[in-house]
Amino acid sequence: MTKRYPRVEVDLGKITHNTKKMVDICKSIGVEIVGVNKVTCGSVEVANALIEGGIKIIGESRIEALKGLKDIKAEKMLLRLPMISNAADVVKFSDISLNSEIKTITKLSEESLKIGKKHKIILMIDVGDLREGVFDEEDALKTVEKIIELKGVEFEGLGTNLSCFGGIMPTEENLEKLNRLKTKIEEKFDIKVNTISGGNSSSTHLIQKGKLPNFVNQLRFGTILMLGTVEVNDTRIDDTFIDAYKLKTEIIELKKKPSKPIGTASVDAFGSVPVFEDKGDMIRAICAIGRQDIDLDWMKPIDENIEILGGSSDHIILDLTHTNNNYDIGDVLEFELNYVAILRSMTSQFIYKDYLK
Amino acid sequence: MTKRYPRVEVDLGKITHNTKKMVDICKSIGVEIVGVNKVTCGSVEVANALIEGGIKIIGESRIEALKGLKDIKAEKMLLRLPMISNAADVVKFSDISLNSEIKTITKLSEESLKIGKKHKIILMIDVGDLREGVFDEEDALKTVEKIIELKGVEFEGLGTNLSCFGGIMPTEENLEKLNRLKTKIEEKFDIKVNTISGGNSSSTHLIQKGKLPNFVNQLRFGTILMLGTVEVNDTRIDDTFIDAYKLKTEIIELKKKPSKPIGTASVDAFGSVPVFEDKGDMIRAICAIGRQDIDLDWMKPIDENIEILGGSSDHIILDLTHTNNNYDIGDVLEFELNYVAILRSMTSQFIYKDYLK
Fold first, then answer.
1. Cβ–Cβ of A61/B135 closer than 8 Å?
2. Residue B273 predicted with pLDDT over 90
3. Where is the Alanine racemase N-terminal domain (chains A, B) (predicted)?
4. Cross-chain residue pair B171–A263, CB shorter than 8 Å
5. Same domain, B158 and B307
6. Considering CB atoms only, which of A129, A233, A266 is closest to B163?
7. What pLDDT does A165 receive?
8. Residue A282's Cα: distance from chain center in Å?
9. H/E run at residue B285
10. What CA–CA distance (Å, rounded) separates A80 from A94?
């Protein structure tokens, strides 16, 4: 059968390899990894590759993605705070969720009781990034007290998220807020706090330095399993693959044209006024993919002599002047994808997905 | 039944109204409108709203979207240059396509002959924006000569695109290149050039000034039908609706917190180092939607006293300090969407679509 384009090839073996690597590292320091699959929009294939790598809990940010994963052999965690309007689905399709509002948790408890389940609650604590989580310690204690009273939910532990909205790095200092609260909860309510879910891939930099506090026993990893890269300090984990996701797309136009647009400039299709340098004539190619499906800043051509010039919703425009390969209309160009480009391409229904074992 | 969130409400009556308005304006100057539906990813409902407004040709940039529109009562135009690998689908699901490469057109002709159809070709001419199109006049004439020889395709006319990649405005001067070529083609090959497809919504600014050249008899309109706005000069067409697309999403967290993140800043989830002003404590809300589904720069809260502070892939964070409304967890906030946010939200499978008659 003819291959269809544009297409993302996902190398499942590479994802399993990366996962095994991180599971081993984390096991040695007493940390369990939640395998965050959200960048794939709920791909069953990738979730299974994570499970094969040793993951026991799969995390997704959208309950619709977890619906599609109902038959995989892992516990399921909803990473984004649940919507009240969606509480019935949350308890049906996930086992654990991250929460910060007692009103929502109360509704989850009601819906759990209806179906005879007990839903696990991780209470999110905001340690400074100012996305989700209870900020005030007294509020946190009051919320835990109420959670314990509810019959349909179980208090599983505390969690936090960093390096997202506010760009705040996880450190021994800000994570200490979780430890303080853990101790207070255990003393005040005479219960054991099972889980301290200390962050996402950005916490890997603490592991690298041997500075992840030992009370943290869970991390929610996506990027690091998919790409082997630690974004906050731009390092890589040894012996991991960065190219598990590859985009292939077809050349639909190839012509020698000027390098600088001719006429009166206004805004482009995305509202910016573009600026161009005059480099004389160049060999320009257009590929059948655009900003609807990918993000130009988060991808690069595998042929290093090709440069991305720009794009619109449906097109990317490339400079092929300096490549040694003799491309023609209908030929396929390949790109390595980074996080945001993976997210966009997995979201777009106009990109074929091909899973390599 | 409970409404599901997040949800985009599309007011089809408003789109039909905007379309009628533009069809009337264009009819009076001898211009036919292609109704560009691509921002909706092939919505049958919106395509029919455009048809009800007087549109006879529906345009999409992806052939997969046209597949889903096979039963609508209009001619179908593929706006993006076809992929050779996809030529069979192109002639099967579209009647007209925009082209610039004879190799692709030859393949379209072959595939057309196989199914006994005649596919119409509009030859794209690059008048300066440097996206798709033949740049050189001699090349254009040679390409037309070859198109005429092919049995499976029909030369329908010339087209151009502006205000996309290079941000070049359509003007009487740059459009004149099409007219010159039209005259040459008609003289040299003794044929009539039926269609001069002179651009997209950005050409509306020429209509406003009464300066659209009279040889232009087709325009491909999307934005102006959906939003009634002329982006290049930031004006609006009288008596049109800008709010045909409305986003509704639920509050999943609502708390008083500081305004400035606390700790050592690095990059956020999208690779930027965010900067924040300290405004003291504020009432912050998180809504269940993020940059996977929308674009923060292309939307605004309908409650004007709410400010968007930022977001990550799955969250938007809002300042509710100054609103007079008494919002709670589970309440629904409304946003007006502009072009890129409409595109993202229609692309996301995690947003419910609700069509209002």
1. no
2. no
3. 10-226
4. yes
5. no
6. A266
7. 76
8. 37
9. strand B282-288
10. 12
Nearest CA in chain A to B282: A130
Q: What are A35's two structure tokens?
A: 């395998």
Tokens of A64: 């619709």
pLDDT mean across residues, chain A: 95
Cβ–Cβ contact A184 with B under 8 A: no
Q: Using the beta-carbon criterion (under 8 Å), do A315 and B265 form an inter-chain contact? A: no
Task: Examine residue B344 and state whether it is found in any structural domain, yes or no.
Answer: yes
DSSP A265: B
Decide if B92 is catalytic: no
Single out the residue in B203, B232, B261 at which a domain terminates: B232
Residue type, A194: N
Instruction: Using the predicted structure, report yes or no on whether residue B43 has a pLDDT greater than 60.
Output: yes
Residue B324 and residue B222 share a domain: no
Nearest CA-CA distance, residue B314 and chain A, Å? 7
**Spatial distance between the Cα atoms of A339 and A316, rounded to a whole number of angstroms:** 18
Kindly state whether B253 is in contact with chain A, defined as any CB-CB distance less than 8 angstroms.
Answer: yes
Q: What is the Cα–Cα distance from B227 to B22, expressed in whole angstroms?
A: 11
| Chain B residue nearest residue A62, CA to CA | B350
Cβ–Cβ < 8 Å for A48, A11:
no
A218-221 and A332-337 as β-strands: parallel, antiparallel, unpaired?
unpaired
- Examine the domain organization and report whether A306 and A186 are in the same domain: no
Closest approach of B341 to chain A, Cα-based (Å) = 11
pLDDT higher than threshold 90 for residue A33: yes
Same domain, A185 and A279: no
Is the pLDDT at A338 greater than 70, yes or no?
yes
Query: CA-to-CA distance for A339 and A326, rounded, in angstroms?
Result: 30
User: Which one of A176, A204, A236 terminates a domain?
Assistant: A236
Domain of A263?
A: 245-356
Name the minimum distance, in Å, from the CA of A335 to any CA of chain B: 18
Instruction: Quote the CA–CA distance of A166 and B199 in Å, as a whole number.
Output: 42
In a domain, A5, yes or no: no
| Residue B214 is assigned to a structural domain of this protein | yes
| Cβ atoms A150, A109 nearer than 8 A | yes
- In Å, how far from its chain's centre is CA B295? 15
> Which of these, A241, A242, A274, lies nearest to A259 by C-alpha position?
A274
Same domain, A222 and A324: no
* CATH number of the CATH domain containing B214: 3.20.20.10
Least Cα distance to A165 among A121, A134, A126, A122 occurs for: A126
What one-letter code names the amino acid at B196? I
Instruction: Name the domain count of chain B.
Output: 2
Contact B274 A350 (CB under 8 A): no
Looking at the structure, tell me whether residues B165 and B265 fall in a common domain: no
Q: Average the pLDDT over A45-65 and give the result.
A: 98
ipTM summary value: 0.94
CA distance B14 to B19: 9
Nearest to B274 among A3, A167, A253 (CB): A167
B330: left (phi over 0), alpha (psi -120 to 50) or beta: left
- Classify strands A282-287 and A245-257 as parallel, antiparallel or unpaired: antiparallel
- The answer to whether position B237 is within a domain reads no
Of the candidates B130, B164, B312, the beta carbon closest to that of A131 is on: B312
Nearest residue, CB atoms, A83 vs list B5, B167, B258: B5
**Inter-chain touch A288–B343, beta carbons under 8 Å:** no
Check if the beta carbon of residue A93 is closer than 8 Å to that of residue A119.
Answer: no
Rounded mean pLDDT, B17-40: 98
- Interface list for A 282-301 with B (CB within 8 A): 284, 286, 288, 292, 297-298
CATH number of the structural domain spanning residue A304:
2.40.30
The verdict on B300 and B210 lying in the same domain is no
Residues A188 and A259 in one domain: no
